[in-house]
Write a structure and sequence with these properties.
heterodimer, A: FAD/NAD(P)-binding domain, 18 strands, globular, B: mainly alpha, 9 helices, about 60% helix, about 0% strand, disordered C terminus
Chain lengths: ~550, ~190
């Protein structure tokens, strides 16, 4: 049972945690579990799952049909679950003309753990030590051996379903049983395996059997609108309850942190925050400050905390902003499934997966680093392919019905974007949000290597689709807008050298020893896989260090 | 009660009824279930007819009319930007003016064959639209498909979608030939 407070505590806590997403939630669990008292602040309200999640609803039971296919693509929010997808108007940010950046946020206790896609893949030293292999940029200040025990601990706690495959670039973890493949996924996976590609099922923080008091998945399929049984990992069901059970956590929703406050002597003493509803200002005191408000919100807080930014002697705070490469996709039909009998192909919201295979042993002549791909299809709730079918009338309707079971798609789920200093987030200087806090100005563009990865992925996906016997009807035309994949990382990077990084390998600030930043911010590179599992492992590792010093 | 909540209740209440009804609508029986919010009654009837021509009822399943696609479009347009709204207004006007030019009467007063002649003309520029009619066809077709396949008629009756139900286990593919590496050759 998670209880929340509206009080404004004045006592000093062992730690103040800003944010309750995957990392803030884990920090609360880890620190309270070791006897520390924590004040947890979240900018959003406490969700009521029965009211704020859209459970088992068909599109016609939702306002605007849950947003029609086209509007869903065009918007950065959802009418149905507004807590989980923050409204842009209240939370503005700015960009330069012609350089769009998509920033999708959540304003609720649980943060983006409420609607993430649950993909949980480990990085390997191919990711952590990429710079040593190809000479570009910086290595991470830690290796796979350093982080592996923390991957174990995170996976054991949250529950990750998957198949152990022995692919060195995609280390196996502590898996619950893997999910079965539907027909499209199986055909596509087998095509990839025939081509010698490292294919498996996407590894998911979604339970295939009861785990730590949480129910197994019942395959209703509407995961990103909120999971009502807690089978999908989020902070509300997995990390905040054990923290609350210790009696050492005070959780205050609706608390928007403006800045980290400094004491004399170079240490942080607390935070200033504004109540979301009353708009009154308060201060809280803590011996340690954990900034886990999401990649860009954390950096915004640090930039707003001191002239030039808190902990920014290196000058790199806000720089090296990254989002993984997206927008490469190939879709069409698998003729052998045309007219197939109705089946339930839906329910997992995830399918087959291909680990990175580029630049592992051989060097690609056109680019460094690599990418991973996902494959799914079949009889899903969103037959968006219908929009691409020409004509009208009875024949169109018949053709859509006939093709429906055979629709398949393969897409780049994450391509590694190279870090560049000029991609950055800074304070806008003029614009403020609805609470009077200066907003971010974001500048992020792709480079040649990023575009080369996108192009290579597109060609490889055509090959896989063809190998599967598919007829290609649509090919992604351009690289995705930065930020659109919601894998934004960087801007507060970790490193061995305080002159070129903000944090050490424990996500602790070089300049201010009692401030930790958890989330995507510490990432020096994007790696080739989904970032959240690694963020959580870094959090657990950092918390262990904090406890040792506390 | 807020409009959105009220609307949601209406839609939830209406869905099972719509799903039970056989398609027994007479051609003129297309009155909206709720008050129109953007389209005029004349525009609504025209949209209703055009969408039913794009996705008609057939022996297998109901069409756009029973799926209330015109009402869906009306609701969508209230929340759309000014240019989208203007595009619909002028597009519907263009359909009427082309019909009057060719047949000398309103679209809904034309025979099915005459109406289909207009629709053919609208659809022929789908690949590379050159006229306002071509552009309007793309607009109305896209929203017809979105509206139809997010309705119970489209998703459950026509496509026979089986998901969004709690299951004890995910049903795996159990076709032995999908596992066989040489299956690709067999399928061709």
């Amino acid at each position: 049972m998670i209880t929340v407070t509206k009080d404004t505590p004045t006592r000093e806590f062992d730690a103040i945690i800003i944010g309750t997403g995957p990392c803030g939630g884990f920090a609360a669990k880890e620190l309270t579990g070791k006897g520390l008292s924590v004040l947890v602040l979240d900018a959003g309200p406490m969700p009521v799952p029965g009211r704020d999640f859209a459970r088992h609803e068909f599109p016609w039971q939702q306002p605007s049909r849950g947003l029609s296919f086209e509007r869903r693509r065009a918007r950065q929010s959802s009418d149905r679950v507004p807590l989980m997808w923050a409204q842009h108007a209240d939370h503005p940010y700015t960009t330069e003309p012609g350089k769009p950046f998509t920033w999708i946020r959540s304003r609720a206790v649980g943060g983006r753990s409420l609607h993430w896609s649950r993909a949980s893949h480990r990085f390997s030293d191919y990711d952590f030590k990429a710079a040593s292999r190809d000479g570009y940029g910086e290595d991470w200040p830690l290796s796979y051996a350093d982080i592996a025990p923390y991957y174990d601990r995170v996976e054991e706690h949250i529950g990750v379903s998957g198949y152990a495959e022995g692919y060195p670039q995609l280390p196996d973890g502590k898996f619950l049983p893997g999910m079965p493949y539907n027909c499209v996924e199986l055909i596509m996976r087998n095509a990839a395996l025939r081509m010698g590609l490292p294919a498996t099922h996407r590894r998911l923080a979604q339970l295939t059997r009861p785990h730590k008091g949480r129910a197994a998945c019942h395959y209703c399929g509407a995961c990103i609108q909120g999971c009502d049984v807690g089978a999908m990992f989020n902070s509300l069901v997995s990390t905040l309850p054990p923290a609350a059970a210790t009696g050492r956590m005070v959780l205050r929703p609706d608390s928007i942190v403006r800045a980290v406050l400094m004491a004399d002597g170079g240490k942080a003493r607390g935070v200033s925050y504004i109540d979301r509803n009353s708009k009154l200002d308060y201060e809280a005191r803590g011996k340690h400050i954990i900034v886990a408000a999401s990649t860009l919100e954390s950096t915004r807080i640090l930039l707003n905390s001191a002239p030039g930014g808190l902990g920014n002697s290196s000058g790199v705070l806000g720089h090296y902003l990254l989002d993984q490469i997206s927008g490469a996709s190939v879709s069409g039909f698998l003729p052998r499934l045309r007219g197939a009998a109705p089946r339930n192909d839906d329910g997992k919201s995830a399918g087959a997966f291909i680990a990175n295979f580029r630049n592992l042993k051989d060097k690609h002549p056109k680019f460094i680093r690599g990418y991973c791909m996902s494959m799914n299809g079949g009889q899903t709730a969103s037959p968006g392919f219908a929009l691409t079918m020409p004509g009208y009338g009875a024949s169109l309707k018949q053709r859509i019905r006939d093709l429906y079971p055979s629709w398949a798609r393969i897409y780049m789920s994450a391509g590694e974007m190279l870090p560049r200093f000029e991609n950055r987030a800074g304070i806008d200087g003029e614009r403020k949000d609805a609470w009077g806090i200066p907003v971010l100005k974001v500048t992020c563009t792709h480079g040649d290597n990023d575009r080369a990865i996108w192009a290579d992925g597109t060609e490889k996906m055509k090959e896989i689709f063809t190998e599967a016997g598919g007829e290609i009807t649509a090919v992604g035309r351009q690289i995705g807008t930065p930020g659109g994949l919601i894998h934004e990382v960087g801007t507060c990077r970790m490193g061995k050298d305080p002159k070129t990084s903000v944090l050490d390998s424990f996500c602790r600030m070089h300049d201010v020893g009692n401030v930790y930043v958890f989330g995507g911010g510490p990432f020096p590179t994007t790696g080739s896989y989904h970032p959240t599992l690694t963020m959580m492992a870094l959090t657990v590792r950092g918390c262990e260090r904090l406890v040792r010093e506390a | 009660m807020k409009r959105r909540e009220a609307l949601e209740l209406v839609m939830i209440a209406a869905a099972p009824i719509a799903a039970q009804q056989p398609h027994r609508h007479a051609p003129g029986d297309s009155a909206p279930a709720t008050a129109l919010r953007f389209l005029s009654p004349e525009e609504f009837r025209l949209v209703d007819r055009l969408t039913e021509m794009i996705i008609p009822a057939d022996a297998h399943s109901p069409g756009a009319r029973e799926a209330r696609v015109a009402a869906y479009i009306d609701e969508l347009l209230v929340d759309s930007g000014a240019s989208e709204q203007a595009g619909w207004r002028s597009g519907l006007a263009a359909v009427e003016s082309e019909t009057r030019r060719l047949h000398g009467k309103a679209f809904l007063n034309c025979s099915s064959m005459q109406q289909d002649q207009i629709m053919k003309e609208m659809a022929e520029g789908e690949e590379s639209p050159r006229t306002s009619l071509h552009r309007f066809f793309i607009r109305i077709k896209s929203q017809t498909l979105s509206g139809y396949y997010t309705s119970s008629a489209g998703l459950l009756k026509d496509l026979q979608y089986k998901g969004i139900v709690p299951l004890a286990a995910f049903p795996p593919c159990n076709h032995p030939d999908h596992e066989r590496p040489a299956a690709k050759k067999l399928a061709q």
